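Researcher: Please predict.
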Amino acid sequence: MIPEAKARQTIDDKLAAAGWVVQDMKAFNLGAAHGVAVREYPTDTGPADYVLFVDRQAVGVIEAKRNEAGENLTATETQTERYANATLKWQKDKAPLPFLFEATGEIIRFTDGRDPVPRSREIFHFFKPDTLADWLAQPDTLRRRLAEQMPPLPERNLRDCQVSAVTGLEASLALNKPRALVHMATGAGKTFTAITAVYRLLKFGGAKRILFLVDTRNLGKQAHQEFMAYTPPDDGRTFTELYNVQRLSSPTIDQGAKVCISTIQRMYSILSGEPIDESAEDVSLAEVQQTAKQAKVVRYNPAVPVESFDFIVIDECHRSIYNTWKQVLDYFDASLIGLTATPDKRTFGFFNENIVAEYTYEQSVADGVNVGYDVYTIETEITQKGAELKAKEWVDHRDRQTRKKRWSETEEDTAYSAKELDRSVVNPSQIRKVIQAMKTAVETQIFPTRQETPKTLIFAKTDSHADDIIQIVREVYGQGNAFCRKVTYSEKDADSVLSSFRNDHHPRIAVTVDMIATGTDVKPLEVLLFMRDVRSKGYYEQMKGRGVRSLDADGLKRVSNSADGAKTRFVLIDAVGVEKSLKTESRPLEKKPGVPLKDLLQGVAMGHRDDDTVLSLANRLVRLAKQLDDKAQARIEKASGGVPVAELGKALIAALNPDAVVQTALATAQAMGKTVNEEQLLPAELDAARATRVAAACAPFDQPALRDEIENARREREQIIDHINLDEVTFSGFSAQAEAQANAVIQTFASYLQQHKDEIAALGFFYQQPYQRRALTFDMIEDLHERLARPPLMLTTERLWSAYARVQASRVKGADTKRQLTDLVSLVRFALGLDGDGAELRPFADEVDKRFQAWIWRHNAQRGTAFTPEQTEWLRLMKDHIASSCSIARDDFDYAELADKGGLQRVWQVFGPELDGLMDEMNRELVA
């Protein structure tokens, strides 16, 4: 058989598989089937290799070539066009045939002549006759609708980055570009953006069906939920009320479905007819090593023709599409839309470098969409170096799957490396040391003010490793089962646990292998602990992305009640060297976490322009903007000449944007009369452009007033952190330094009291002789506290109490209780020595209680009759009010518990005219 005949035999077979009846011209019968392909059909320019008829109407032409002509198949397009425009014998319709194919036995190319700019594309297989009939029945082609009929995007409820992504994608599709990449930072709303685009492609683009491809089954569930929750801006119904959405879990595609959600594994199973277990969809393909021999061979499936989908949206497209599964995508005649937060060179190459929108992690942090992160490292001897088990040691041997143990001797010396930990060898001590170190770090350094453990996610190596971690976490924290749970695909109730982790108080700590490593939102998450290394750079970025979601104060407090505001950062705890083992795409925006904000501001003012300093300052300012109240924001804006603090930070980030630096350099060269392109720019020109941009962004910080205002605002916001940071009693090796700092705090306090005794009412109370004193009021104490707590003193009650506890521990009580504002009374008395040299510093409430006991005993001893039980109960209530408010007066009986007992009317009935005298006496005796 000659090569061309061999190719035609294959073409015949492919046409038949697609539902065409293939006939020779000598015996053609257009009534034989819905779709008929006639070989060697005569035209006025010669016989066409194949003419396609649908319901007796000529609709297309195929130009057949031998397989070896595949490399020059595009050169055949003019020949195909000639036949398409020719006059067909016995056909009255003179209109050109719209559907043009060039084919060998290996390759098929297709052009729709009705497109605005007809362009051929390679397709996996011939289309079915029904498909061509449907296309002919439509007044316009899909590509013409995309180019000419898409209405403007309503921007309400969309972020700028989402608007940019949808409009950029539609502009790309209008130009008939087959692949488009949307690069959006994790947490910026990629899925919502994609659903917005999908809705518009269905409603206005007239798309037949869209495939939404996900990496794992769990992400498919999450995507389906987002489709169900999506309400378009121009219709009050939800997406799933308007269009059928099918999450594929069987071999059949619902013909009524407009959106199909699937993993690439499931789609291959549908195409190949090979059954697939659901568990195969639980593992991210990024974590599965595959060889060329495992490449998936895709064959034509008439039940799922190549035209089944007009578009394929590939969520987290940095992973499985490049390796052995790529042929699944090649099978469909669909435009590919990629979504990723972590593109690499393969991503850009696969999508033909057509990046329709780019929104980086750093930009998302600057905009407040995401939060920045810090890295905290835990290192242990065994984690880094492994260990050795000597022969004849009696140890447990555990079955990996059943976890059944047997007690036996080791037969020989067994050395194991760090990589073998928790795989071939489990060392409980290593796990315990890491968990203990994490607990200490979180409670004393990372989130020292929290009353509950911040929501924490631990990445384990295997399910067995996860079980070991869970047991030790519960033991180290002294908590029950609800505190720490596993969230892996092997967990039967994984979805319920995940929901609780996201929305409820418990669990506080979740351990996962890969179920929530990617794509799953857990906004309250504030700590990530890596107890496994990661091979894939993109996968690691996605795992880090679990912590970047921002969350407002109310949302965070719902699950972490002691949080003092919105989520402003997360902390990545690296216990296996994962940060060092690979260079990640997005580095921590905080390049110098140990450098005080004051020093960063001063450094920039002095001319420091290195990337680390500029980015660190930018991150601090963006973070600070989330924390400040309106008054502090306004003061900074006034000092900066009208620029909000967040915009100051964004300007620093924008100044270092490489693309913007290039544009500045080009503009400078043009202004100098030089005509150059990007490749011709000299390093010196780029350096000069960067310096110009950075200098402009740093210029506001030349003003000392602005630097001072920012530093003062930071100090005001960080009150709680400052006073807790003094509680460093557990920090070994820093005791001398901590004691010196505490002494300095006490001396500053004493000096302030002496210097301001004549101008502050509360201080005048203590310095006056007892017979001169008027009542000490809560307002007076509050005024004194505000003066002491302001920068630069920052002498809060917590900080002062901690300082005295460090220096004079034996005389300080109640250091472990929560401070009350009235404790300032005790602090002032203690500092002035009003109660004698050996007196103790006690919480004000304790001191009031002690004085009350002595006072009431003395009263009862001096009176003819003791106070009645009801009178005593009222006196105790009055004492409690004094303990919290410094004094008691008639008006106070309108408040809280006093009012609940009958208020002023009842207490007057109980005490009569004695009441006022008793109140004055209690104010004097219990407070002075």
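Model: The chain has a mean pLDDT of 81.
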